[in-house]
Amino acid sequence: MNSPHGSRLRLALGTLAAALVLAGCATAPPPVDTAALQPVPAAFKEAPPGRWTVAPPADAQPRGPWWAVFGDPVLDDLLQRAAERNTSLQVAAARWAQARALQQQAQAERRPTLDVAAGVSRQTQPQLANQPATLGSLAAQLNWELDLSGRLGQAAAAATLEAQAQAALLESTRLAVQAAVAQSYLGLRALEAERAIVADTVEAYRGTLRLTERRLAAGDVGELDLERVRSELAATEADALALERQRRLLEHALAQLLGEPASAFALAAGNGLDALQLPAVPAGVPATVLARRPDVASAQRRLLASQARVGVAQAAWFPNLALTTAAGTASPDLGDLLRWSSRAWGLGALLSLPVFDGGRREAAVAQARADFDAAAAGYREQVLLAVREVEDELASLQLLQSQAAAQSRAVAAAARATVLSGARYRNGMIGQLELLDAQRSELRNRRQAVQLQGAQAQATVGLIRALGGGWDRS
């Protein structure tokens, strides 16, 4: 005859075996093939001739001070200050710290917990004729949930991927801030060069105005010539003020990027635009083209994290098994609390299997799958955006280089035309209007040349950012 104790033991073992069989049916979703999800081109349409290849993620690869290629110590100092004080970087760093804390919390769920408790209670007991008695207890309890379905493991994996994604976002923010500081600084230098040209033109027009006033007094020219010069001078002075306004606004934006108040910020004198050393894009860029972009890596890891959360939601259908053990002492006499005879212990197991929940688990699985679909679309969008940004900057640099060469020829021709027009005007061969037209043409061409030079510098920074921080060969 079987004893009741043996029957209970067999029942417990049978239940545990059934739970293990059910848990064995819980399988994680198949791995995501991100290359098939959104293929990365092996070559860029706008790239110079050469070999472009695809590489595995390398967003953790050190980039170094890529801005050093410009050879400007003022820019070096600005980027150092931005790294220390930029508020966007501080927010991204705090979110990374939050993600790491959640990762540690998810990993801790897989480990046993140990609690120690001590208590004293005053109560009545029927065996003592309801006389009040004091009961003291001292115990330690160990709890451990066996991860039969892999739910806790997948949750920890998802939290780890989220932490890695947040770390990549921090790097993406750092790269974006560096590029914004560099582009703002280069834009400021371009505006200063343009302002210098306009200031020289203003002085030239003032000299022309004084000369015209003397010639009007001598009766050599009419009042119409004088008013034309005055109009041109006033319009050029207005241009100078507009450039100063743009420069100040850009300076304020640069101060914000550095985490400093605009009222206390002043840009130090540095190299002019002509002294900048613009790096040339190599003909063959190595395999770290888009693999170094931290935003693409972040989107990929968020996709993998959402896939792991699908597994977590699916594992909620399978049983959970928790083991509990406790040991300690209990005594109605506090003096006997630490005696060996007052010892007490307990060992238990709790198996829970979902039967009916009103559709909650099914809804959780549907939500996790929808999140996965959104993450997959977000990853594809990020890859396409990265490819487009590289193509845009490559096209801009190629066309800006040709445009700058053509503009250089236009500046030389306009300057020669101004010299010839001035000589002919002094000899009385042309009127004031023709001379002003030549001067306006030279000013316009010089300003366009400076604008193109600044655009080339900013497009170079844009390409460095689009490639994830440079194109150094590994």
From TrEMBL:
Family the UniProt entry places it in: Belongs to the outer membrane factor (OMF) (TC 1.B.17) family.
Coarse class of the protein's main subcellular location: membrane
Protein's cellular compartments: Cell membrane
UniProt name for this protein: Efflux transporter outer membrane subunit
SUPFAM superfamilies xref list: Outer membrane efflux proteins (OEP) (SSF56954)
Ranges in a coiled coil: 226-260, 380-407
UniProt organism field: Azohydromonas lata
Pfam families given in the database record: OEP
